[in-house]
């Protein structure tokens, strides 16, 4: 039996206010008060893992050890079948502009273009199957941990469509839909997303009967 969370405080290993709000909304009905690593002044550890699981655990463990409070971290990204699972854990890195490409920051259109360019190099009949992945890791200060993996399968389209998503959403069409994630209303997207899949597994095990 996996160790369970009790009601109380939980550190969300993020400095992103939007991500904190999204995760807190899912956990507060279960008696969890969510704090962000950013609000506690915790540093962001280097994500040196080669898998989503490794990176999620790195972040969760660092937050739990630094705060002395149970911590939750997520790591997520896009994998394209024809690209051997890339960009994978480097999903966000592919959007990072280099110093010679203008202002620093993330350029998601550039990142989508990199993926599309690689697919086109493989020919017109390339397999466009892809999936979004999300791993949620809980770490206790004493070293115990639990991991939950979620997935949303689909395919990659071009050109980008829609304005409601972020990241690679404008080119990702989930299985069973003709719309990209960026064309689907946020509530409908959250119901089928990779993060929703991972959270459903976490809630069932941590707060189920």
TrEMBL record:
Keywords: Hydrolase, Magnesium, Metal-binding, Nucleotide metabolism, Nucleotide-binding. Mg(2+) binds at residue 75. Coiled coil: none annotated. Pfam families: Ham1p_like. It comes from the Bacteria. The active site is at residue 75. The keyword Plastid does not apply. Its EC number is 3.6.1.66. InterPro entries: dITP/XTP_pyrophosphatase, ITPase-like_fam, RdgB/HAM1. GO terms for molecular function: dITP diphosphatase activity; ITP diphosphatase activity; metal ion binding; nucleotide binding; ribonucleoside triphosphate phosphatase activity; XTP diphosphatase activity. Homodimer. The gene is rdgB. The keyword Hydrolase applies. GO terms for cellular component: cytosol. GO terms for biological process: nucleotide metabolic process; purine nucleoside triphosphate catabolic process. This is dITP/XTP pyrophosphatase. CDD domains: HAM1. Pyrophosphatase that catalyzes the hydrolysis of nucleoside triphosphates to their monophosphate derivatives, with a high preference for the non-canonical purine nucleotides XTP (xanthosine triphosphate), dITP (deoxyinosine triphosphate) and ITP. Seems to function as a house-cleaning enzyme that removes non-canonical purine nucleotides from the nucleotide pool, thus preventing their incorporation into DNA/RNA and avoiding chromosomal lesions. It comes from Altererythrobacter lutimaris. Substrate binds at residues 14-19, 76, 166-169, 189, 194-195. Binds 1 Mg(2+) ion per subunit. Its cofactor is Mg(2+). It catalyses: dITP + H2O = dIMP + diphosphate + H(+); ITP + H2O = IMP + diphosphate + H(+); XTP + H2O = XMP + diphosphate + H(+).
